[in-house]
Design goal:
By secondary structure, the protein is α+β, with helices and mostly antiparallel strands. The chain is 18% helix and 27% strand. It has 15 helices and 49 strands. The strands form 14 sheets. Strands 38-42-43-41-40-39 form a six-stranded mixed β-sheet. A five-stranded antiparallel β-sheet has the order 29-35-32-33-31, with helices on one face. Strands 1-10-11-12 form a four-stranded antiparallel β-sheet, with no helix packed on it. A hairpin with a 2-residue loop joins strand 15 and strand 16.
């Protein structure tokens, strides 16, 4: 009904854009703005502030308030940072007094909550406050009472008010840092971890039972008062210029609260300067508690640079999870040390020194009275030890993930980071096959190329959760015998096939994997996963989902061959993929041919199209990346690792699920608590496609040209400049086929659109890649606009 009403409004109250842009101060009922490439804004009476749409990318708009008269037009408030509005959206002050943001189809995207009756008009004030006004000039609703990350002079925050940082410098979705004036009167800064709901307090005003209101006055002072108006705590300090300056205070994406001024008569070289001590002065050393990652993400460390701003870095052997946000944490770039007692691998690892660096707390072993050499030896011999801290004769051992990382000059501690020697991403297997490699899947170490065919993990994940605890002598078998095409193995058969489970290929959260051969022929190679028995979900749900996955049958999906469910024994058998994964093939020493890369792209697209549209119940893979694309003997690409997959019921198109997948390939909706659909796979495929086009990883911090560090940004830049040839200039075969290179680039840009609704289906993408349909000019991907 709301959509119908809004659709009627679009007809009854259209205003020409020129009239909209010139509106200042008071706004009558029926006024509207349209999100397009023009100047869509309502101005305050003096013209110093504007309320309206800011273009964040072609086809993506932010409803915001900003300083209008300065060059960078700094945003101070936004309504829809977590869900940008598409081109053609409108903001309406309806005839019944509602302020509504609607998409071009009239669907409501945002509206102030709660709603108020009796609104007579709206106004953009010269203070930067946008208000809905009722009778007797009473403000019924105002942006000052619903701040985002910024507060302005004359703004007051009452008990219960919250200020939230944004995700990154140019991404206005909600970040992990919150400022809260709690109901008990204490002003608190929280750091909310990326991976959970618990929070860390890293600064507070210590005014429990006393605090009442946070005030930013016209003289540029920010302070906390008691109920009687007495000043309890000066939040900002120092001398603040007032006349001729704009002011703002912001909880920035790095978690630091800073106050800025900007001259009103600025020329192009002027900008915002800080005028008060930051809170906290050093966030690197302020956040190190029992929960969360610290100031930076997990497995990273924080350094306070010369300008007083924190910077997040990865230790040796680690790379950022999300190239668009340096505070998101890091991941290992090498295979972790094996915990198989017969293969200690101590000679395969080394410890890299990091002076004055620490990861406080979360140590699992502390040994006093040690020398540094003994500390090193202890960590190298311990497969659980990812890093050791040595200082003052004490050795602390740390496991993954590493938390609270910081570098502090003069600190009497040294970090010893364990890294694999020679090759950070692969190592030879025990049989000496130089072509065999190990890959990292969800941070689970694998030990050879044979195991990469074992990545269809949804089935083991579902099965092991249904079993009773290890202490149970007998577990009731799961009834999955109705699944067609599945061979049931006896435990003795698999024991003989693996020579008594002799050759371990890898181990992870779901069990241990062994190489096996049926009979005496090496061509009958298979991989056998021995599952850990654990408690789990209902057997009926397990049976339903295992049946759905097991019945998938497509040439571009890795096949589950059979299983063993005998007494306490739970084993799964997978087909063998003898050409490894796409990481080794694509980013190795020699570049694959352009035609082969085209075939791989089409293979992956066809596999995803089958999962989304060809199965009885649609399946979202949720973790498309090169490590999960395997190649068989004829180099046909197949999708693996369904351990993260999400099954949809017949009447579903979207689902709400926990955070999954691998950063760098993740669609924006994962970070915004939005419902997940098959379009997350489309986004990941787009990232994979640009990697296939250019034969390089999406993120290369060591790139010689800064603009090429983030591949998707460079791809869009080259496309926009009409210089797609630069992407393949060293590839003679691709250069001679530039028409198809451009087609693939345009398809990739469609895939990585910020708005899931703009991304084509995988069926349509397959047709684009195969040349069955024309590829229209793609919109600008927001991720590229933000980075340019």
């Amino acid at each position: 009904m709301a959509s119908v009403k809004l659709g009627i409004l679009l007809v009854l109250f259209p205003l020409p854009l020129s009239a909209e842009a010139q509106t200042r101060g008071k706004l009558n009922l029926g006024s509207s703005l349209t999100a397009n490439d023009g100047n869509s804004s309502w101005l305050s009476l003096s013209g110093e502030f504007a309320f309206g749409f800011r273009r964040m990318g072609r086809g993506a708009h932010l409803l915001a308030i900003w300083f209008e008269k300065i060059e960078d037009k700094t945003i101070v408030w936004s309504a829809n940072g977590d869900s940008l509005a598409p081109e053609g959206s409108k903001i309406w002050l309806t005839t019944d007094g509602r302020l509504v943001l609607a998409d071009p189809n009239g669907r409501e995207l945002w509206s102030p909550s709660p709603t108020f009756a009796g609104v007579e008009h709206a106004a953009m004030l010269d203070t930067g406050n946008f208000v809905l006004v009722g009778q007797n000039s009473i403000n019924l609703w105002e942006t000052f009472s619903r701040p985002t990350d910024t507060i302005l002079p004359t703004q007051q925050l009452d008990l219960g008010s919250t200020v939230k940082s944004r995700y990154s410098e140019m991404n206005y979705s909600t970040g992990r840092f919150h400022l809260i004036l709690q109901d008990d009167g204490n002003l608190v800064f929280h750091a909310t971890p990326y991976s959970g709901d618990s929070s860390d307090t890293y600064w507070d005003s210590k005014t429990v039972g006393k605090g009442f209101r946070l005030i930013f006055n016209q003289r540029g002072k920010v302070y906390l008062t008691a109920r009687n108006g007495a000043v309890l705590n000066g939040i900002t300090s120092g001398t603040v210029p007032t006349s001729g300056f704009y002011h703002r205070a912001i909880l920035e994406y790095d978690g630091v609260f800073r106050q800025y001024v900007h001259p009103k008569t600025a020329d192009s070289s002027s900008g915002w300067t800080t005028v008060s001590s930051p809170i906290p002065p050093n966030i690197c050393t302020s956040i190190w508690q029992n929960f969360g990652s610290g100031a930076c993400g997990f497995n990273s460390y924080c350094v306070l640079e010369g300008d007083g701003r924190p910077q997040c870095h990865c230790p040796p052997g680690y790379t950022p999870l999300d190239s668009t946000n340096v505070m998101s944490g890091c991941r290992q770039d090498f295979v972790s040390q094996s915990c198989d007692g017969s293969k200690p691998e101590t000679d395969q690892f080394d410890l890299r020194e990091m002076p004055n660096t620490d990861w406080p707390m979360y140590d699992y072993e502390r040994t006093p009275g040690q020398t540094e050499d003994r500390c090193r030896e202890a960590c190298l011999a311990d497969c659980f030890c990812a890093l050791a801290i040595f200082g003052g004769g004490t050795c602390w051992k740390k496991k993954i993930p590493l938390s609270n990382g910081m570098r502090v000059p003069g600190k009497d501690r040294k970090a010893l980071v364990k890294v694999r020697i020679n090759n950070l991403t692969s190592k030879p297997t025990g049989n000496g096959n130089k072509n065999s490699t190990l890959v990292i899947i969800r941070s689970v170490p694998l030990s050879s190329i044979v195991f990469v065919n074992l990545l269809l993990l949804l089935t083991p994940y579902l099965i092991y959760r249904s079993f009773r605890s290890r202490d149970s002598k007998l577990s009731r078998p799961v009834q999955i015998n109705q699944v067609t095409g599945m061979r049931t193995f006896t435990y003795q058969e698999l024991q003989e096939a693996t020579d008594g489970f002799k050759e371990e290929l890898g181990r992870g959260a779901f069990g241990t994997v062994y190489k096996g051969v049926l009979g005496s022929e090496e061509t009958n190679s298979m991989a056998v996963k021995v599952l850990a028995t654990r408690t789990g979900e209902s057997e009926k749900e397990l049976e339903r989902e295992v049946s759905a996955i097991s019945q998938t049958n497509h040439k571009n999906l890795v096949q589950l061959l059979g299983y063993c469910n005998e007494g306490q024994h739970r084993l799964l058998v997978y087909e063998f993929m003898n050409n490894g994964n796409l990481v080794d093939f694509l980013f190795g020493a020699s570049r694959p041919s352009w035609n082969r890369r085209i075939e791989i792209a089409c293979d992956v697209a066809q596999g995803l199209s089958y999962l989304h549209d060809g199965c009885t119940r649609p399946i979202i893979h949720c973790d498309i990346k090169p490590q999960n694309i395997l190649l068989d003997g004829s180099l046909t690409a197949k999708l693996s690792d369904f351990g993260l997959a999400k099954l949809l019921m017949a009447n579903q198109t979207r689902t709400t699920t926990e955070f999954r997948g691998t950063r760098g390939y993740l669609a924006p909706e994962w970070f915004r608590n939005m419902p997940i659909s098959s379009k997350v796979d489309v986004y990941s495929f787009g990232i994979l496609l640009v990697e296939l086009i250019c034969c390089r990883k999406n993120y290369e911090p060591g790139a010689e040209i800064e603009a090429q560090i983030v591949l998707v940004d460079w791809v869009y830049h080259c496309y926009q400049e009409g210089s797609v040839l630069q992407l393949v200039e060293r590839d003679e075969e691709a250069s001679s086929d530039i028409k198809w290179v451009k087609r693939f680039v345009m398809t990739a840009l469609w895939c990585i659109q910020e708005d899931p609704a703009l991304r084509p289906s995988m069926k349509k993408i397959t047709q684009m890649l195969e040349g069955a349909v024309e590829v229209p000019m793609p919109p600008v991907p927001l991720s590229s606009i933000i980075s340019i």
